[in-house]
Design a protein that fits this description.
Elements lengths: L11 H23 L3 E4 L2 E2 L7 E2 L4 E4 L9 E3 L5 E3 L13 E4 L2 E2 L12 E2 L4 E4 L9 E4 L2 E4 L85
Parallel strand pairs: 7-12
Antiparallel strand pairs: 1-4, 2-3, 5-6, 7-10, 8-9, 11-12
């Protein structure tokens, strides 16, 4: 019986090896016939992100590209890696709680560049974090206490993606439950303050006009000599 490639793996390592061999071998011929395939690394929601999930936890290919790049990052190797909350978009395997932005320590990224999750509130991932710095475990939730991620407005859009899975609920934790070493992290620059209202220009008071000076009445002419008295 053919195994369903979308089903959760029963045995992690054997499934990953079989998946890589079968998927990549078959995809090579398909890619030659139908054009370039899209490369993924690790598990991810299936396009168009309405609840179906791919559980292949290794490098593999699909015919479709990610429909929403807000929850993906493209690795230097050219593969797409899912950086959102897997459970929110249909994953139903083991999950681990996190709060706020954090460094991603998924085994799928071993030897890759440093990648951060930019989710600002409580969320889940399919991988656990080590119970040691730069993480602190409290109330079954991992809190990242290392250097903050670089500010990135485009990556912070991941917070605008709505859950596709029915009955999804994030971990029941909030900032008031943070361990002492945790500091809230910004992932974007704060919005600039609104400009101050323009101050109307002050006009100088008009100077009072000078009052006209009354002219003196002309003196009467002196009478001519020898004239009538």
């Amino acid at each position: 019986m053919t195994q369903n490639p979308w089903a959760p793996p029963r045995n992690h390592a054997p499934f990953a090896l079989l998946a890589v061999g079968a998927v990549l071998a078959g995809a090579a011929a398909e890619a030659r016939a139908d054009g370039e395939m899209t490369r993924y690394r690790g598990i991810h929601p299936v396009s168009p992100h309405v609840g179906e999930f791919c559980h292949i936890d290794a490098a593999h290919v699909h015919r479709v590209s990610p429909p929403d790049m807000r929850v993906y990052v493209r690795l230097k190797t050219g593969e797409f890696y899912f950086v959102g909350d897997q459970t929110a978009l249909g994953y139903d395997g083991p999950k681990y709680g996190y709060f706020g932005p954090h460094l991603i320590l998924d085994p799928m990224l071993a030897g890759s560049e440093r990648i951060f999750c930019y989710l600002t509130g409580p969320h889940y991932h399919s991988y656990a974090s080590p119970a040691q710095p730069p993480f602190v475990s409290k109330d079954n939730v991992s809190w990242y206490v290392g250097d903050p991620p670089p500010l990135n407005p485009e990556r912070s859009w991941v917070n605008e993606v709505n859950p596709a899975a029915r009955d999804y609920a994030p971990p029941k934790v909030d900032l008031s439950m943070a361990p002492p070493a945790y500091k809230p992290m910004r992932v974007t620059e704060p919005a600039p303050p609104p400009p101050a209202p323009a101050t109307p220009a002050k006009t100088a008071p008009a100077k009072a006009s000078a009052k006209p000076t009354a002219k003196a009445a002309p003196k009467p002419a002196a009478p001519a000599a020898g004239g009538a008295p």
